[in-house]
UniProtKB/TrEMBL annotation:
Keywords: DNA-binding, Membrane, Transmembrane, Transmembrane helix. This is Helix-turn-helix. One of its GO terms (molecular function) is DNA binding. It comes from Denitrobacterium detoxificans. The chain crosses the membrane at residues 100-122, 128-148, 178-199, 211-236, 257-276, 296-315. CDD domains: HTH_XRE. Residues 7-61 form the HTH cro/C1-type domain. SUPFAM superfamilies: lambda repressor-like DNA-binding domains (SSF47413). InterPro entries: Cro/C1-type_HTH, Lambda_DNA-bd_dom_sf. It comes from the Bacteria.
Length: 321
């Protein structure tokens, strides 16, 4: 009871909300509420951080009586103080958006380069350059995407709750920027398809054969704009970020969901790699149909993600909060 009373007193005396304390400690607002109601107790790491934050010892915080301690006026948060981005959420999310969008675009450029080398018909050079360019772009794209994903996962674990600090003006400006990104991205993709259609009926052999590469180049730029704009637009919805972190916490606490999703994604990865190398083997054998089918190897990962979402919904405990 002493810890609960101490925490409640120290927070309220500083005019600090549960949301603000949660952000400083890297926990959810629900965790702070449970500590103050006596439903749970924080781990030692969080207790030590609170002791530093409130300028007291660990023993005083846990078993002492701090309810009579006066708080320095300089530590009190003034009424009406704008919420600040104390955890670097905006910088992190913008970096995440840039890296993911760039990685996806580079992989699509790999398809474009492979198609271009095939169109140039350089004989043995084309046969070696086409898969080499594609695999190089895939590796480069993954070098952007995978570290960004791991950094985002680490950030989400360290900051499961973020108080919404964006103003309505900022959200309105981002909404307009998102609309522009989506519009320009779709226009570029349509232009790419139109360019390929025009090239397909051209009498120039080189132009006709390279139409697919040009289309993919347009698509790469369009997809970059859409992916980047979509992630930036999503970062403004801080409440959704908090809900996702809470849902992830509930899923991590259910080992059945973790096991099922792990199996699904391992199977998807095995199938994707099999199709990737199968595509190259089929190309060497001259099997155009099999090559085309296997070229869509990347589809297995989005399908795996969708299946994981279905499993999570189906297996989630309806009483989980």
């Amino acid at each position: 009871m002493k810890f609960r009373d101490n925490l409640l007193h120290l927070r309220q005396q500083r005019n600090m909300t549960q949301e603000q304390l949660a952000m400083l400690l890297g926990v959810s607002r629900q965790s702070v509420a449970k500590w103050e109601s006596g439903q749970s107790t924080p781990d030692v790491d969080k207790l030590m951080r609170m002791a530093d934050l409130f300028d007291c010892t660990l023993d005083e915080l846990v078993s002492g009586d701090l309810t009579q301690r006066e708080v320095d006026a300089r530590e009190v948060i003034p009424e009406g103080t704008p919420v600040d981005d104390v955890c670097g959420y905006d910088v992190h999310m913008r970096s995440f958006a840039l890296k993911v969008a760039t990685g996806v675009a580079i992989i699509i450029v790999g398809f474009a380069l492979a198609a271009l080398f095939d169109a140039l018909a350089l004989g043995s050079v084309s046969e070696a350059a086409s898969p080499a360019a594609f695999l190089l772009c895939v590796a480069l794209g993954l070098a952007f995407i995978l570290p960004a994903g791991m950094a985002h996962s680490s950030f989400a674990k360290s900051h499961p709750f973020v108080e919404d600090f964006y103003t309505e003006k900022q959200k309105a400006a981002e909404q307009r920027s998102f609309a522009r990104s989506i519009t320009i991205g779709i226009v570029l993709i349509v232009l790419g398809v139109a360019t390929a259609a025009v090239a397909d009926v051209s009498s120039n052999d080189l132009l006709r054969e390279s139409g697919g590469a040009v289309m993919l180049a347009f698509i790469a730029v369009g997809v970059w704009l859409i992916v980047h704009g979509g992630i930036i637009h999503g970062l403004m919805d801080v409440e959704n970020y908090n809900r996702e972190r809470e849902d992830e916490k509930n899923e991590y606490n259910d080992p059945r969901i973790s096991r099922a999703c792990g199996i699904i994604m391992l199977v998807a990865t095995a199938l994707g790699l099999l199709m990737l190398f199968g595509s190259m083997a089929a190309s060497d054998m001259g099997n155009a149909t099999l090559t085309t089918v296997c070229s869509y190897f990347w589809v297995v990962w989005p399908i795996g993600g969708i299946l994981c979402a279905i499993v999570s919904v189906a297996m989630r405990n309806p009483e989980a909060k």
